[in-house]
Design brief:
methyltransferase, 7 helices, EC 2.1.1.166, seven-stranded mixed sheet, Rossmann fold, 23% strand, two-stranded antiparallel ribbon, 228 residues, alpha/beta, globular
Length: 228
């Protein structure tokens, strides 16, 4: 690689065996200010700044004591929580292996596994104040299919909130362009006081990702007692 071009941008030399798309991805990484800042700040990925920016706007981390991180790999979001709230209990899960993070419990398993919720909550030690989900299904290149698969993960996270989020807690989940669909938004509005969509500045402009921010969890009403 060599320095060249205007504005101090890094120009990527064509590498043997590298495709044009790989070269474009590498050039984007090398010239991305968030990537450079992540390295300088010791974060594992530029995604850390998405949570930092969402927190600046929505005060997500204020006073949290227990946090679940769904789709934790590579660990940038958990690092942010750990730095801002060092006394908080943090538990994460991902299909991919994740290098250890001091003070964070990490499970390498599928969140959709039947045993996952119990293992997460046992490790957390009580109801969560904040449930974060940066999960996204592997894309197949068909927008409608990709949207449906990602929405299924968002819905699973929402269902997890019902049993495991404390009253007043918050849920943050990645969605694709267009945001959560109407049925899911209606369900979130039933469960939370406020529901908004946001695209943090750290999210690339050409990315289809947005985030749904649901705050003020309303604990479901207890069922009426059974008649004698």
């Amino acid at each position: 690689m060599s320095r060249g071009g205007s504005g101090g941008r890094t120009r990527v030399k064509t590498g043997r065996g590298r495709t044009a798309s790989s070269n474009r991805w590498l050039a984007r990484q090398l010239n991305d200010p968030y990537v450079r800042q992540a390295k300088a700040d010791g974060y594992r990925s530029r995604a850390a700044y998405k949570l930092i920016e969402l927190d600046e706007r929505f005060n997500l981390l204020r006073g949290v004591g227990r946090v679940i991180d769904l789709g934790i790999a590579p660990g940038g979001w958990a690092q942010v929580v750990r730095r801002k709230m060092p006394k908080a209990a943090i538990v994460g899960i991902d299909l991919l292996p994740v290098d250890p993070i001091d003070g964070v419990t990490i499970f390498q398993m599928d969140f959709m596994d039947d045993d996952a919720p119990d293992r997460l909550m046992e490790a957390l030690g009580g109801q969560a104040d904040l449930i974060l989900s940066d999960m996204a299904a592997n894309t197949v290149g068909h927008p409608q299919t990709d949207h449906l698969r990602t929405m299924a993960l968002v819905e699973a996270g929402c269902a997890f909130c019902v049993d495991n989020l404390r009253p007043g807690g918050a849920y943050v989940a990645k969605v694709l362009a267009g945001g959560a669909d109407n049925d899911l938004v209606a369900e979130l509005k039933r469960l939370f006081t406020t529901v908004k969509h946001a695209k943090p500045p750290a999210s690339r402009k050409d990315s289809s990702e947005w985030y749904v921010i649901a705050q003020g969890f309303k604990a479901p009403a207890a069922p009426p007692p059974a008649e004698a």
